[in-house]
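User: Earlier you gave me the apo prediction for this protein. Now I'd like the version with nicotinamide-adenine-dinucleotide bound, so I can compare the two side by side. Same sequence as before, with the ligand SMILES added.
Assistant: Got it. Here's the input I'm using:
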Amino acid sequence: MGKLDGKVAIVTGAARGLGRGYARHLASLGAKVAVSDLNLRSYQEFEAEAHAMTGDSTVDEIRSGGGDALGFEFDIGDRDQVFAMVEDVKKQWGRVDVLVANAGGGRGKPAETTATLVPPDLLELVTRMNFYGTVHSCSAVAPHMKEQRSGRIVTVASYAGSVAGIGGGYAHYGANKAAIAHYTRYLAQELGPFGINANCIAPGVIATARIVQLVGGNAGGNKAAEDIAVRRFGTVEDCAKVIEFLVTDLSDYVTGALIPIDGGWNRAG
Ligand SMILES: NC(=O)c1ccc[n+]([C@@H]2O[C@H](COP(=O)([O-])OP(=O)(O)OC[C@H]3O[C@@H](n4cnc5c(N)ncnc54)[C@H](O)[C@@H]3O)[C@@H](O)[C@H]2O)c1
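And here is the structure of the complex with nicotinamide-adenine-dinucleotide:
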C-alpha cells in the first residue's frame, strides 16, 4: 500500500528539475499525477537533465514505472488554461487531492535586476510565471478540494524570498517568492475550515542542472557551500521528502507554514 494510493496530484513545472522529482516521488507513493509544464520536454535545455531521463517525458517515466500520469503543456500564467487542466483532471480521475505549485524561476541577470533597474518586461514575465501562476493554480483546485473537504497544497518560494542577496540582484524574483509565501498564509486561513492544508517551501541552493550550471555542484567541496550549515547544496530528494511530509498525514496539523529546505543556510528573519 502506498501512502497516496487513490489520490490525485497535480505538479506544475514538472518536466525537469525539482518538479519532475516531486511528480515521480508522488507517483512512487501511489498517486495519479498530472504533470504540467510550458514545455514537457524542457529537460532538453540541459544535458544533465536530458541524461537523467529514463523516458521521453516525466509522464512516460511514471507510466513505464506502472503509475498513472497525464501531461499538460501550457503557460501557467494563462488562468483559463490552468482552470481547463484542473477540470480535465477532475473529469478523468474524479478528484484533486494534492497541488504542488512548483512552476516558476527567475529570468535575467543579477546586475540587471536590482530593485529599481529591473526591466518592466522581465518584472512582468517573472511575476506571471511565479506569483500569478501560483494564484491561478491554487484558485483552480480550491473549489474541488472544498467540495471534497480535503486537500493539500504546497507552494514554492525560495531562500531569495526571505533574504535579499548581496548586491540586490534578482529583486523581481525574490519579491515574487516573498509574495507567494505570504499568499500561502492567506490561503491557509481561507481553506483550513474545509480540511485543506496549505504550506510553502523555501528551497536554498538545490543542485538541479540549471543551478549546477550557475554555481557548480557538490563534487570536490564547492566553496559556495561554505555558508551552508551542512556544507553541501540540496538535492531533489531532499526537497521531495519534505513534499511527502506536507502531502501526507504526517503534517495534519501544519498549515500556513514557510518551511526552509536550505541545509541551514545562514538566514535573516
Ligand atoms: N533549484 C533551486 O535551487 C531552487 C531554489 C529555490 C527555489 N526554487 C524554485 O523551485 C521551482 C523549480 O526549480 P527548478 O530548479 O527545478 O527549475 P527548472 O528551471 O529546472 O524547472 C522549472 C520548470 O518550470 C517550467 N516553467 C517555466 N516557466 C513556466 C510557465 N510559464 N508555465 C509552465 N511551466 C513553466 C520550465 O519549463 C521547467 O520545466 C521554481 O519555482 C524555482 O523558483 C528552486
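For your comparison, keep in mind: The radius of gyration is 18 Å.
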